[in-house]
# Entry
Amino acid sequence: MDFALIGRIWPFFAEAAWVTIEVSMLAIILGLILGFAAALASLSRNVLLRWPARAYVSVFRGTPALIQLFLLYFGGPQIGINLGPFEAGVIGLGINIGAYMCETIRGAILSVDKGQTEAGRCLGLGQAQVMRRVILPQAARMMVRPLGVNAIALIKGSAIVSTISVLELSYTAHRYISSTYKPFEMFILASIFYLAIVTVFSFGVKKIDERVALES
Amino acid sequence: MNEPIVKIRGLKKNFGSLQVLKGIDMDIDQGQIFALIGASGSGKSTLLRTINQLEEVTEGEIWFDGELVNQKLPHRQREAHLNRLRQNIGMVFQHFNLFPHLTAIENVTMAPLMLGRVNKAEAIEQAKKLLDKVGLSDRGDYYPSKLSGGQKQRVAIARSLAMNPKLMLFDEVTSALDPELVGEVNRVMKALAEEDMTMIIVTHDLRFAEDVSDHVIFMADGLVVEEGPPSLVFRAPQEDRTKSFLQQVFND
Amino acid sequence: MGLDFSILPAYADILWQGTLWTIALTVLSMVFSLAGGVVFAVLQLSRHAIIRWPVAGFAWLFMGTPLLLQLFLIYFGLVQIGLDLNAFVAGVIALSLHFAVYNSEIIRSAIVAVDKGQYEAARSLGLSQFQAMRKAIVPQAVANVTPALGNMMIALLKESALVSVIGVMELTLSAQRAISDSFRPFEFYIAAGAIYYVLNLGLEQAVRVAERRSAQYR
# Structure
C-alpha cells in the first residue's frame, strides 16, 4: 500500500467527490420530480397520461442506464440536443432513476388502504382532494425508505458518468490508475469517499423517516 | 311526510357474472331508522354502498332527496354530482377508516374546511361540539392510533356529522369492535336516532336493531325476504327463511 | 444531421455478435453470482468470527461502491499482480462478485427467516446440521428468495453494459464500434437499447416462470 502516494493525491479525490455529490443530488431531485409526475400520471384514468407514463417506466427500467446516457450525450446532437457532460450526466441519471422512483411512489400510493379513499369520497371530497390530503400524506411515510434505496443506488450508479468525462470520483480513480499503475490504492481511496457519501446520505434518510413517522 | 328521502326501484347489481342484488324496492321517509339484517353475502352491505355510489348499480334507480343518484353523466359532471350528493349522505364503516395522519379533531374538520363550508374557527368550534356529543371532548388532539376501537368509531361518526348530512349510512359499524366497546357506539347511534336523523343501519347486532329501528328489512340472496316494524319481523316473522335466520342467530 | 435508421442492417452482424457476447457474459455471471451468493451467505452464517468478519467486510465494501470502480480494480488489479486476464474473464469476475454480494444478502436473510422450529424439528429427527439445511431449510428458502434474486438477475443484464469500458466486445461496445465507423450514435444506441429491451423482456418472463415454479414449496 503506497501511503505516500495516497497522502499526495487525496485532495484531488475530495474535489472529485464534490462532483459526484453534485451530480447525484441534482439527478435525485430530477428523478423525484419525474417519478412523482409519472406515478400520478400512471394512476390517472386518462389514457393520454397513463400510457406515456407506463411507456417511460418500461423503457427506462428495461434498458441499461449506460445506453441511455450515451444516447443522450452522443446521440443528442443529431436531434438538436447539445449538452455538456455534466448536464447530460444529471439529466441522463435523473431520467433513469425517475423511472425506478415512479414505481416506488406508485407502489406506496397503491398500498394505502382503499377504505381511506372511500372515507374521503364519502365526505364529498373530489378525487384530487382525496389524493392530496388523504392518500399522499400517508403514502409519503411509506416511500421514504424505498426512495432512499433508489437514491443510494443512484449515487453508486453515478459512476457511469465518468464515461462521458464528468470529472467525478470514478473518473479520477480511473485516471490515476492509468498514470500510477496502483489500482488497489486508487480503489480504496475512491471507496472511502463513496462509502462516506452513502453513509451520510443513509443517515439523512433515516432521520427523515423517523421524522415523518413521528408525526402520527 | 310526502316524498320519501330515499327511493329505490328495481335495483340490480352484478359483480361479473354473480348477481348480488336481484331487484330491490325501498322507500325511506325523513327521520326513519331502517335496519338491514341478513346473513353474510345476502347483499345488505352492497345495497348500502350503492346508495352513495361506492358501488355502481347494474340496473334500476336510486333517488335521494328528489334527485336521481345513478344518473348517466359524463365523467366530470358525474364526479361533481356525486361529490354534492355525498356531502349530504354520511357514511360510517366497519373498519372506521379514520385518517391516521390527522388528529381526531382534524379528522372532523378536514372536509368542511376543504369544501369551504366554514372558516377555521367555526370548523373547530363545530368539531368540539360534535366530539363532545360522541363523548370524546378530551380526545380531540389524539391521533387515531392512540384511540380504542370504540373511540375511533365515535370519531368517525362525528366526522360524518360535520357535513350536516340528511342521511346516515352505517355499515356494520360494531362488527370489528371488542364486545365491551359495542355499547358506547350503539349509545351514540341511539342518541342520533332520537334526534330524528334518517339512518340506514346494516348490522349483525339484532338486539340493537330491534331496539333502535322502526323498520327492519331482512335480506337473503340479494332479495328482500321480509320487512316491517321490528316488533313484527323479530317477534312474529311470516317467512320460513326469516324464522330460521333468527333462530340461528339468537341461538348462538 | 438527420436520422437514418436504414443504415442499421449493414451492421447487423456486429450487433448480433455483440448480443451473443452479452448473453454469454450475463448467463455466466448469473451462474457464478448465484453460486457465490450461496457461498458468501453460508460463510456469513458461520459460527467462527474469523470467517464471518472478512466476508462481512468484503460485502460492506462491495455494496457501498460502484460496480464500475470494482471493474477497474479487478481488471487493472489482476494485471498488476501478474494475472493478465482477458477483458471478458475480468468482466465475468467483476459482475459475479458484485452480484454475489447482493445475492448473499438476500439468501442469508431468507435462511434466517425460515422458521427456527423447522430446523429444530429436522435436527430432532436425527438429521445432521448439513442434512437439516439441505432437506428442511433450503427448499423453503429457495421459494422465498426467488423473486428478489430474479430482480437481481434482471439488474445484472442491464449492468453488464458497463464491461464495455474495459473493452469487452459485448453489445454496448459493438454499438460503439459501429458508431465509430458510421458516425451515427443515435441510431445505434437506439438499436442497442431495443435489443437490451427485448433481452430484458425475455429474462423477465423467465424469472416469472421460475417464481411460479418455486412458489409451490412455500
